[in-house]
Predict the structure.
Amino acid sequence: MTSAAATIPWDELIEHDRVHGSLYTDPDVYAAELERIWYRTWVYVGHVSEVPEPNDYVLKSIGPQPVIMSRDKQGEIHLLLNRCTHRANLVCDAPKGNSSAFRCPYHGWTFSNTGKLLGYPFNSGYAGTALKSELGLGRVPRVASYQGFVFGSFAEDGPTLEEHLGAATDAFDRLVRLSPTGEVELTAGWLQHKCKANWKMLLENETDGYHPQFVHSSIFSVAASGIGDLYGEKSTAVCRDLGNGHTENDLRPEFRRLDQPLGWFGTDPAKVPDYVDQLTAVHGERTREILVDGSPHVMVFPNLFIAEIQLFVIQPTAVDETVQHVTAVQYRGAPDMNRRMLQQTIGSVGPAGFLLADDSEMYERNQRGVQARNPEWLQIKRGTHRERQDENGFTVGDATDEVPQRAIWKHYRSLMEA
Amino acid sequence: MADEVGELSSEFASVRVRIDTDGNGPRLRVEDLRTGHVGFLDPLELETLAWLPEGGLHKLLDPSLHRWRAEDQER
C-alpha cells in the first residue's frame, strides 16, 4: 500500500512562520496524519486510576481507533482493540465495567481481558479449537505509563515513552506534586465535546496565549478573574517550546511576582486548611513555593492537554471533526480541594460553562474560514523577532507569542517527512 | 427459603444471587436473569473460586463447553 504521507509535499505546505490551509481540510493529509502520528507515536490513552481494581476496564480511543483499557487479575494494564476477531463487532459497549472476560454480543465469541480468545459457540463448525490460538483481540503493541498516565504506541519499535515526553515529564511531576499523596485520580467522570473542526485547531489553541483576552473576555469579566491579565502585553509569563511538539504557557513568572499561595487557583490557603496541612506534612518549607507556582499549562503532543485543574484529551474522528474529552483533576486524598476543582471545572467546561463553549465556537468558525480559497496561508509569525533561549536552552517567547504554534508545526513536519 | 443477596449486571450478563437454605446446609443460588436458568454453589465450591488462579475459569467461559454445543458433540 502506498504511503499517504510520501505523496504530500510537506516542505511546500509548512514554513517556519506560516502553514497552508489545506493541512486542516485535505482528507489525504488526515490519512497521512493517522499513519505517521496517531498510529506511530506515543498517544495518551487513559489513567491507571480509571481501572483501580483487578478486571476493571474502560473504553478509550487512539484517534478513531476504539480501544479497551483493561487491568488483568495480576494488575497489568492492557490496551486492546475493541473489535471482535470474527466479524468486527465492538466486543465491549459499556463505557466501563468489571469483567475477566468479554463476550461479543453478535455471535458469542468470548475473550479474556488480556485479549486471549477463550472460545466461541458450537465449535464443531470450526472443526475444533485451533482458531483459539490465532484469533485473540488486536492489541496496541507498546504500552507505558508515566506518573500513572498510560500511553500507547502502534509502532513495535521507536523512542521510549520517556524519550518522547522529554522535557514534558516535568509537567506530570509538577501536577502530581500538588497532590498530598503524590497521585492524581481521574474519577470525576468525562464530558465529551464534539466539534466540527480539524484536530490541530484544538492542538494549537491549547497553548495559544494570544486569544484568552478576546475569546474568553466575557467569562473573565463575569467571574472577576485575573486570568486575562496573565496573557497581556505586560505579563511576565512566557510561552515555551519543550521539544517533540510539546508546548507550554509558563505562568510561574507572574505567579511568583504576585506571590500568593493558591493564587493560581483563585483561592487562598485559609479556604482549604486540611489540604495545606497535608501538603505541608509532605513538602515542609517548600510548600509555599509549590502553592505559589501552581499547576502546569502544557500541551503534550499530540493529544493530552494538562490545563492546571483539568485534563483535555483530543480525539480526531474525521478531517473536520474532533471530540474533546474533559475531566477535572482530582488529588488522591484531598477532598476539600477536589470539590473545588470539580466545581470550577463544571463552571468553565461543563454543559453550561463558558470557557470551552467559547473555544469551540472559534474552532468551528476557523474550520469554516479556512475553506476560503484566498488567502491560502495561516500566519504564525507573532513574536519571531523576540524569540530567545531560556536558561535550559528551550525557545521561549512573550505570553502572547506564537512560539508554541511554530514548535508544533516544526515537530509535525519532522514526523510527516520521516 | 432464600435470602436475597442482590443483583449483579454487566454488559455481558445479569444474575440474581441468593443464599438458599432448602437443603441440609446453605448454598448460593445464582439465577441467570436473561434465561431464568438457576445454578447452585456450595461453600466448598465457593472457597475453591476464592482460590482460583489467573485464568482458572477460562475453560468454563468457553461458550462451546456446555451451553452452546451440538447435542451429539463429545465433551
Notes: The longest strand of chain A covers residues 310-318. Chain A is about 30% helix and 25% strand.
